[in-house]
Amino acid sequence: xxxxxxxxxxxxxxxxxxxxxxxxxxxxxxxxxxxxxxxxxxxxxxxxxxxxxxxxxxxxxxxxxxxxxxxxxxxxxxxxxxxxxxxxxxxxxxxxxxxxxxxxxxxxxxxxxxxxxxxxxxxxxxxxxxxxxxxxxxxxxxxxxxxxxxxxxxxxxxxxxxxxxxxxxxxxxxxxxxxxxxxxxxxxxxxxxxxxxxxxxxxxxxxxxxxxxxxxxxxxxxxxx
Length: 225
What we know:
Number of helices: 6
Helix content: 40-55%
Low-confidence stretches: none
Distance between the termini: 34 Å
CATH class: Alpha Beta
Oligomer: single chain
Largest sheet: 4 strands, antiparallel
Shape: globular
């Protein structure tokens, strides 16, 4: 995997990042790789100002952080992990989702999702993805920005589409780099339904696609016996 800054201007990289959004990612990364390991990642990613200085837990953009900084953290973590990047990033993504749900449950409409458990799995998954996107839109609206997101029916899966992907903002790569988002989606759906769902990234803005896309299965994985 090779990740570098894009040679052209990417307007998504300039979008403001809500403080809590970066805080959740940093806390999750610290749990997985430790405080010292995270300090190394932040230093190598050009984010030394965040070492021991995480943004506050608030839905405001007061730290001067942008989507580019978030993508730089993502790239730094993937470079740090090397061959184990996928599994470690998935763990960070899952923990990030859990922190977001624990700290801002109202933002992501968790009460309604709990009530949806009587519905078919395909419907539950769509509602969960829609609630996540609605929460992200509300986050962006707090800083007067528009987060372009969509959901499409792709037969056996729902396509989670992000035209303003923070994982890849301002970055160029030779393969998809949204593994953390895979973990976020998996954990959010597990929290909602109690089951595991397959998630695969099939398009990435870092590779020139107009949007980053993840396919989320409509049916849960069979339990491991």
